[in-house]
Amino acid sequence: MLEKTTRINYLFDFYQSLLTPKQRNYMELYYLEDYSLGEISETFNVSRQAVYDNIRRTEAMLEEYEDKLFLYGKFEKRQQLIQKMIEAVNDTEQNNQFHNWLEQLQELE
Predict the structure, then answer these.
(1) 100/16 Cα distance (integer angstroms)
(2) How far is CA 46 from CA 7, 43, 63, 73, 80, in A?
(3) 63 Ramachandran zone, left/alpha/beta (phi>0; psi -120 to 50)
(4) What pLDDT does residue 29 have?
(5) In the chain, how many H helices and how many E strands?
(6) Global pTM value
């Protein structure tokens, strides 16, 4: 469950600008603010089922965006490559400039 929540949070970070304000509000409250479905339904004066359906549809949309755009997948691969490069630099301690470039690249994430 935690793995799914983490993935949805990342997808939301990458693709939230493609969502409607209502979808963003529901997702922020549910995933970021840890509101229950009942609390969200009371806040927006809609049924709990309507909130549930909206969140599930939005999750599916986020997954579809990722299937087409690969932003999260590329982010993960970049993070893995950066970590491997850092480990290689730390093992050999060859070039301080290279290490500085890696740090700068990490800061851009």
Answers:
(1) 32
(2) 27, 8, 25, 35, 42
(3) alpha
(4) 98
(5) 6, 0
(6) 0.81
Contact 54, 70 (CB under 8 A): no
Distance CA(15)–CA(64), nearest Å, equals 10
pLDDT along the chain (109 residues), means of 10: 92 98 98 97 97 98 97 93 80 68 80
Residue 62 CB coordination number (10 Å) = 23
Residue 58 has a pLDDT of 98
Query: What is the structure's pLDDT at 22?
Result: 97
CB 40 within 8 A of CB 26: yes
Q: What is the pLDDT of residue 89?
A: 73
DSSP state of 19: S
- CB neighbour burial string for 3-39, b if at least 16 within 10 angstroms, e if fewer: eeeeebebbbebbeeebeeebeebbebbbeeebebee
Output phi, psi for 83, to 5 deg: -65, -40
